[in-house]
Please model this.
Amino acid sequence: MKDEKRNVAQPVLTEPKQSVVKEMILWWEKRRLLYNAFLIIPATLLIIHFWNYPMRTIIGGDHIILDVVLLIFGANVFYTLGWGFGVVNYYLFKSSGLSDWIRWSFFVLGTLFSLLWTTFYIVIKFDVLFA
Model:
């Protein structure tokens, strides 16, 4: 009869803790819009600024815009490497993920690199240096 008197407490229902991988992916994906804004806005302004340069009439404006769209798409593929490296690191080395400081460092450095690369590409594509 002692078994009948044991204290049976209701389990506390809590939401399951997010997996480390899911948290890594969400951290990067929440910032993708900001990343794209840092690329698309300056790229658009540069294209508008350089639109009347002679190279556009030689190779065609549509070709330049398509190239920039493909470049930004490629930059987003490389952006995915941010969380991709975190996932690989987690599975290979059983780490708990990168700290926020390291993630923000990668985000800022990667965004600056992409911004410089996109700007350099547009300047070369419009042949601004030699016009």
Notes: The longest helix spans residues 61-93. The mean pLDDT is 78. DSSP finds five helices and no strands in the chain.
